[in-house]
Amino acid sequence: ECYVLLLERIFELSKRAAKEVISWFLFSKDERRLSIPVLVIMIRANMLPIIDLDIQLARMIDTGQPGMVELVVTLIREVLLGETPFVAYDAFFNCTMMLSERAEEDESAISLLSDIKSRYSITSLKKAGKDLESDELRESLGILFSEWVKLYHHPSSSEKTHKAFVVRLQDLGVLHDEDISSMFFRVCTELSVDLYIQAKSTPNVSPYTPFQAADAFSRLIVLLVRYCVEPDGAPGNSAKLDLTTKILYIIVLVLVHSHEQGRSQFNQRPFFRLFSSLLYDLNLFEDQLSNVYYQILFKISNTLHTLQPSFLPGFTLSWLQLISHRYFMAKLLAAESQKGWPFFQRLLVDLFKFLGPFLRQTEMADAIRLLYKATLRILLVLLHDFPEFLCDYHFSFVEVIPHSCIQLRNLILSAF
Q1: Three-class SS state of 38
Q2: What DSSP string describes 159-221?
Q3: Rounded to an integer, what distance in angstroms lies between the CA atom of residue 350 and that of residue 344?
Q4: Which of 264 and 181 is assigned the larger pLDDT?
């Protein structure tokens, strides 16, 4: 411990020395660095980057280095399963993933994984009588999401590690319990918004940093839907669609609550980023979600109908951008047998109904003028790419547009 205190002081005085020492622990072939007491005290003192150490140890297990399984099992027990753990439950995510692949070959690995699952299972909190609104449960779920954000944005992140994290959520009981899964998605949404606000108020941060949590949550949603297992006897893809509906419903609840609480201070950007990232990720996994892809788009359309400007004026600009998103409007209108047309028609009617009272006035405010110009651009795109859509629904559109808006009405009727 004296040496660690001395090393801490050296780290404070010399960044170069700190870098050299950390590199030695991570990459050196010297076996002295793999001493359990040394690693434990270095981890306790926060002098080793856990993520990088986890990756290096996992690689050594993967290459079959002698004695590595026993060393990693012992290390994880020391730092994670002691009386006072001092790392997050999945700090050694890659190592536990490698151990699970080799569990059949080593009983100590089986025992470790079983002990982690029983100790850190989220459902155990509920069985112990913890309230769903308790700080302890919310903190546990928040740590889970924070670890996912770190994993998703880590340079070594891959589809394999993503799938393993989803499996880990299932093992911990987060997805099996209806109440806990709802709380988990609520915590994820709230943290995505809170982390955006915190990052925006922090000087000299990367423009991408505020959106890291929202982007990670978006990808997690798509992965959860992709790897969702249909129960025996369930029709079609009902479990995937029910999960999607549930997540979207919770996001809407958080958005509406934030809108009502914030009023004029409501910040729509994190919610816009979450929905736009979700559309992007769905498009990215379209082939894997082929059976439910368009049905999910229809559910997002229903969600946007719920969030229409007449109900949530503070979300109007983001709403307009989302309904005209290249992975939403074009995909919806290009759906087979024109199945997406009624959904987009309803959204355009929502837009015209909101604009109607403002367009009847003699003068438009700058914000309404901006919305009007954006609406014209959307109609021009529809006129060019989907004139048949405007023809089929021209009556329902013209009916809700004020008679004084000759330009809008003529633009729709010119589709004939």
Answers
A1: helix
A2: HHHHHHHHHHHHHTTTTTSHHHHHHHHHHHHHHHHHHHHHHHTSTT--TTGGGHHHHHHHHHH
A3: 10
A4: 181
Determine if the pTM surpasses 0.90: no
Q: How confident is the model at residue 129 (pLDDT cuts 50, 70, 90)?
A: very low
The Cα 339–Cα 335 span in angstroms is 6
The whole-angstrom separation of Cα 241 and Cα 237 is 6
Kindly report the backbone phi and psi dihedral angles of residue 379, in degrees, each rounded to the nearest multiple of 5, phi listed first: -65, -35
408 pLDDT higher than 80: yes
Measured CA to CA, the distance from residue 60 to residue 177 in angstroms comes to 36
- The DSSP code for 336 is G
Q: For position 94, what pLDDT does the model report?
A: 82
- The continuous run of DSSP H or E covering 323 comes out as helix 316-323
Evaluate whether 150 touches 162 at the Cβ level (below 8 Å).
Answer: no
Q: Let me know: does 361 contact 392? Beta carbons within 8 Å.
A: no
Q: Which stretch of 44-53, 130-139, 274-283 has the lowest confidence by average pLDDT?
A: 130-139
Q: What is the pLDDT of residues 25-83, one digit of tens each?
A: 888 888 888 888 888 888 888 888 888 888 888 888 888 888 888 888 888 888 888 77
Any idea which residue has 């009405």 for tokens?
A: 409
Cα–Cα distance measured from residue 79 to residue 86, given in angstroms and rounded to the nearest whole number? 6
Q: What is the DSSP string of 101-168?
A: HTGGG-HHHHHHHHHHHHHH-HHHHHHTT--TT-HHHHHHHHHHHHHHHHHHHSTT--HHHHHHHHHH
